[in-house]
């Protein structure tokens, strides 16, 4: 696709969702070959896409993502409804995993309700899913901890360098991830801690706070709203690094575990109360000498030694992160920044063949292709069509950029 209109992009995104929809199970597999199971944050993003398309499958998908919720409120990050016995070897339980992922269900619920789909039935599960973090995951500083890199949704990120082999080696890291799984402490099929990995990650905390505020807005739940605001304040107080212009990660004792500048480390921009900080971060996200490369913001700041864009989670452009930063810019009323991110998201998705992630400089598709979360392009096209209409692929001859 060289250039096009918002409606052409919407049609392409809808076709990808249709291709991956499991009508029997009520969710989209992110990619039929590489990712046949259900993943929590992917399904929440699919819900956001369906909501923007006015498609009732969004409600079905959110319900299926929450279906394996435990009485504590814990929601597993993977569902193996297609073959429940396949879960047992890795997780020791039938049909699901024993860790979680960013709770994007607060935002998903709000998008559904805003699009006119009733929250009925889903509200209590979403509220319990968020309360779980405030009741079971808080460390003494008031931040939330994750207990495995998989919980972040970004398992190979250089933010976990303290646990990774140096130099990085994917095979050795895969073995370490297994060891970290063995280090998980579980009770009744749920995680309760880890002897080796506990991190108050900036991005995970930001997404808990953001989703709490999103859910509270539609559920009229003052307890969740207040927990979300308190967490947002803690993130700003404890994780912001003024010199680096990013939020950092800390372990439960308060020691910094990573200062590497990654794009997800900027997600607290969704909830920060500091307008100058918000502006500074979003400027960096779109700046060509910052993260803002030709086909989208790089997943790792290009000046970092770890920037290696073709490697998984080490610098590529991820559509769901670009979407979240677009959302932050929109929410902040920074229309120029939002329009730029919308254009970049569409240009990269189209150039890459709607890939799982892509090269921020060339648009080359990386990872699974196509991958359903690239359908988030439909959301920006539906909500801000003028930012996208008439866009042209900057890499095609004569595009003039
Ligand atoms: C990979 C990603 C994770 C995602 C899953 C399915 O494991 O790291 O974030 O949820 O694929 O797309």
Keywords:
binds alpha-D-glucopyranose; 9% strand; 401 residues; two-stranded antiparallel sheet; 16 strands; 15 helices; mainly alpha
Can you put this structure into words, describing what you see?
With 401 residues, the chain is mainly α. The chain has 15 helices and 16 strands. The protein has helices at residues 6-20, 40-52, 57-66, 88-91, 105-114, 123-136, 149-152, 170-182, 202-219, 222-239, 275-286, 319-331, 335-352, 376-383, 385-388; strands spanning 3-4, 21-22, 27-28, 38-39, 78-79, 184-187, 190-194, 240-241, 246-247, 249-250, 256-258, 292-293, 296-297, 357-358, 365-366, 391-392. The strands form 8 sheets. It has a two-stranded antiparallel ribbon with strand order 1-16. Strand 6 and strand 7 form a beta hairpin. Helix 6 packs across helix 9. The longest helix is centred in the middle third of the chain and has 18 residues, at 202-219. The radius of gyration is 19 Å and the shape is globular. The mean pLDDT is 96. The chain binds alpha-D-glucopyranose. Alpha-D-glucopyranose is lined by residues 30, 35, 39, 41-42, 153, 155. Alpha-D-glucopyranose (GLC) binds at residues 30, 35, 39, 41-42, 153, 155.
Largest sheet properties? 2 strands, antiparallel
> Which secondary-structure class do the elements indicate?
mainly alpha
Q: Going across the biggest sheet, name each strand in turn.
A: 1-16
**Uncertain regions: pLDDT < 50 for 5+ in a row?**
none
Q: Estimate the global geometry from the Cα principal axes.
A: globular
Mean pLDDT: 96
Number of DSSP-assigned strands: 16
Q: Whole-number radius of gyration?
A: 19 Å
Hetero compounds: alpha-D-glucopyranose
């Amino acid at each position: 696709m060289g250039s096009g209109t918002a409606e052409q992009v919407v049609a392409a995104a809808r076709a990808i969702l249709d291709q991956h929809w499991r009508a029997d199970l009520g969710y989209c597999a992110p990619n039929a070959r590489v990712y046949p199971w259900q993943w929590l944050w992917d399904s929440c993003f699919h819900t956001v896409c369906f909501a923007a398309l006015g498609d009732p499958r969004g409600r079905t998908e959110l319900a299926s993502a929450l279906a394996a919720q435990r009485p504590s409120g814990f929601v597993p990050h993977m569902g193996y409804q297609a073959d429940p016995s396949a879960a047992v070897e890795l997780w020791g339980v039938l049909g699901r995993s024993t860790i979680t992922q960013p709770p994007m269900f607060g935002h998903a619920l709000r998008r559904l309700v805003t699009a006119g789909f009733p929250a009925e039935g889903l509200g209590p599960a979403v509220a319990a899913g968020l309360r779980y973090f405030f009741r079971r995951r808080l460390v003494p500083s008031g931040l939330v901890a994750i207990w495995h890199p998989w919980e972040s949704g970004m398992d190979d990120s250089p933010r976990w360098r303290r646990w990774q082999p140096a130099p990085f080696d994917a095979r050795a890291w895969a073995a370490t991830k297994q060891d970290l799984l063995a280090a998980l402490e579980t009770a009744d099929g749920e995680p309760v801690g880890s002897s080796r990995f506990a991190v108050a990650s900036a991005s995970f905390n930001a997404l808990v706070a953001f989703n709490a505020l999103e859910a509270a807005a539609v559920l009229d739940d003052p307890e969740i709203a207040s927990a979300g605001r308190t967490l947002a304040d803690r993130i700003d107080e404890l994780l912001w690094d003024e010199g680096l212009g990013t939020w950092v990660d800390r372990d439960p004792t308060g020691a910094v575990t990573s200062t590497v500048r990654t794009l997800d480390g900027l997600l607290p921009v969704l909830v920060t109360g500091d307008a100058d900080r918000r502006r500074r971060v979003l400027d960096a996200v779109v700046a060509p000498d910052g993260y803002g490369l030709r086909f989208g913001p790089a997943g790792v700041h290009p000046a970092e030694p770890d920037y290696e864009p073709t490697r998984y989670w080490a610098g590529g452009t991820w559509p769901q992160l670009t979407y979240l930063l677009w959302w932050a810019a929109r929410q902040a009323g920074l229309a120029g920044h939002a329009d730029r991110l919308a254009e970049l998201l569409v240009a990269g998705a189209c150039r890459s063949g709607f890939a799982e992630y892509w090269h921020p400089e060339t648009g080359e598709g990386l990872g699974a292709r196509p991958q359903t979360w690239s359908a988030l392009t439909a959301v920006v096209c539906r909500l801000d069509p003028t930012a996208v209409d008439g866009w042209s692929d900057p890499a095609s001859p004569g595009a003039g950029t």
